[in-house]
Amino acid sequence: MGENHLAALPTALCGVILLMAALSQLILQRRIVANEGKQSAIKRAIGHDRKEKASVLCYVAAVGAAFRLPWLAQLLCVTVGLMWLVPDRRIEKALQQADA
Questions:
Q1: Tally of CB atoms within 10 A around 96
Q2: What are the tens digits of pLDDT across the range 29-77?
Q3: What span, in angstroms and rounded, lies between the C-alpha atoms of 95 and 91?
Q4: Is residue 66 within 8 Å of 11, Cβ to Cβ?
Q5: Whole-number Å distance between alpha carbons of 52 and 3
Q6: Against a cut of 0.85, is the pTM above it?
Q7: How many other C-beta atoms are found inside a 10 Å radius of the C-beta of residue 58?
């Protein structure tokens, strides 16, 4: 956000961009599952999409909070980033089990 550290509009726009990325990931996962089938290894690996759905909810909350509490909006975006910093090994593990 450059020189506009806690400005509302840049914070909201950043949240919108991150929200669109999270939504595209969610849509991509659902299309892959629809193509592979509900009993596929990828569906078992993804499970209930808790992490993905939590990301989308945090980004929606961040966009909403950006105009009143920009620091909270930025904190929510950083929290999602930290949440995804830990690698998600569900897919790799499920695909290895399917090959065995």
A1: 11
A2: 889 989 988 888 778 888 788 888 999 999 999 999 999 999 999 999 9
A3: 6
A4: yes
A5: 30
A6: no
A7: 22
